[in-house]
Structure formats: structure tokens, C-alpha cells
Amino acid sequence: MHKEGFPVVLGHEGAGIVESIGPGVTEFKPGDKVIPLFISQCRECRFCKSPKTNQCVKGWAADRYDVMALEETRLTCKGKKLLQFLGTSTFSEYTVLNQIAVAKIDPAAPLDKVCLLGCGVCTGFGAAVNTAQVEPGSTCAVFGLGAVGLAAVMGCKFAGAKRIIAVDINPEKFEKAKVFGATEFVNPKDHSRPISQVLAEMTEGGVDYSLECVGNVAVMRSALESCVKGWGVSVLVGWTDLHDFAARPIQLIAGRTWKGTLFGGFKSKDGVPEMVKAYLDRKVKLDEFITHNMTLDRVNDAIELMKHGQCIRTVLSVSQP
């Protein structure tokens, strides 16, 4: 039994080419360009058949989300079983995927760019467009300006928001946010009073939509409290399962909505190819997220950059980029 979810091959955001297919696989052929999906879409379960959700009964998320790996795996090393992180394991030259967890994409798509659509960009963009359903002319606040937060900023702009307030404690992130459509910036460290009060003063009582892209329960509360009463919508985008989150009931009684999103609400096999097309049609940005390119053997260097906030996205390639 692997109670702790180790040993595991990490990585869940990638793109590649089909090397071979197993018996019964009809959707793919060797040579196809694909993106692995950490949320499957079997198209047959009650969730897949419902337009209300992108969760699939057959995905890893339905079962072992606590260790982020299913017991079942197709990877071994020196005869020992290796678990597959989120059923994908992209930090590897090869991986083996279930066909319900792979999206076939346009053969013209550059793999070293569209790999970002395997998680972060779809998550942030979809949180704004699909989950919050940001409306034209609205005012939005995005908390946390990593790749997911920047994608949320891009989603707000795509949806026609008039004001997009970017919130982060690292002022170096602000120039980058402007590229994706942010109109204003607030650094909570510059203020002695709560960020929700600062935003309320800037926006006649609060923003129409707020998106929490950190995964911090205190920030989630701030994001909710930054929404205007009556119709404000706050979306939890940052992944965490460490602590309870809390707020006063009056926040919701007064008409605010608090909701969460996984993979930006995109049904994976349908949404990912659409986002690839949107990139090829220049409707969404990807290149601007990529600050570093490295080879796979430098994965630890890439993780260090991320831990210290020195990159937005580092793309790892199997061979020399």
C-alpha cells in the first residue's frame, strides 16, 4: 500500500506526442499532438452528461485527492511501482495515460507553449469566464499574480471587465499583470487597514467579482469581503486542503456568492482543444507567461525558481529547447 502517495513521478502540466496506443484506443493514433488531463472526461458518467460541472466520476479527483495519486499506475522503475501524480506524471520523457484523460489538439500548436493549458492557464482563465461569469463593464479584483492569477486577469479582460484590480504583496508582479489587462494595482503591505476596505473605497462599496488565486484561507476571506453586497461573486481558485475557511454569515446573507472552481470549469477534452485554438487565433496569450526554459534534468532548479517567486512559468523540455 502507498498510503503517503510515494514514490511518485510528479508533474501535471504538459504536452506531447502519442508514441503508441494500447488495444481498444480509437480516438488517438501515433504522432497526434496531445495534452494530458488531470481531470478526465469519460463523456458517459452523470457528471460528464451534465452541463453544470466538469468533474468526472472516473478521474483521480473523485477518489484519492488526499495523496493526489491513484493506486493504479502504469509506471515502474527497476521493477518497483511508481505512482502517477494526478494520473499524468509529466516530469518524464514518457508517460502512460488513460484515453479519457488526454485531449487531442491542433497539429499546428507549439508544444512548448500550449503545455501551459494543461492546468494553470485554463484554471485562471476559466475561473473568470466560466465560473465567475464576469460581465462586460464590470469591476474585478484578482488576488495573487502567479500564472493562475495572471490567467484570471486575462480572463477578466477577455470577458470585457472595465476595471481589473490586481492584488499582490510582490510589487514586481505588477508590470506583468498589466500585460494581461490589469488596470490598477494594490499591494496590501502598503496599507494599514484591511485590503477589503481599501478595495471598497476604490469601488463604491466593493468589486463585482473577486478571484482568489493563492490557496490561502485568509486571502479567501479577504476576497469575499472585497465583493460588493447584493451581487458580488467571489471564486476560490487556489488549491488547498490544509485549513478550514471562514466568514461571517452576514456576508452571504447580504447577497454575495462564494464559489469554487477546479480547472476553471472547463470540461477537459472539450475545453483544452478550444483554448489551443484560441491561442492560435491570438485570442489568449501564452508566451507571456513563460519566463524560463530549461531541460528536464534541471527540474530542481525550476522548482527553486518557483518557490522564490522568481518565475511565472518555467517550461521543461526533454531535449535541448
Automatic annotation (TrEMBL):
Residues 147-275 form the Alcohol dehydrogenase-like C-terminal domain. Residues 5-105 form the Alcohol dehydrogenase-like N-terminal domain. It comes from the Eukaryota. SUPFAM superfamilies: GroES-like, NAD(P)-binding Rossmann-fold domains. PROSITE patterns: ADH_ZINC. Keywords: Metal-binding, Oxidoreductase, Zinc. Its cofactor is Zn(2+). Belongs to the zinc-containing alcohol dehydrogenase family. This is Enoyl reductase (ER) domain-containing protein.
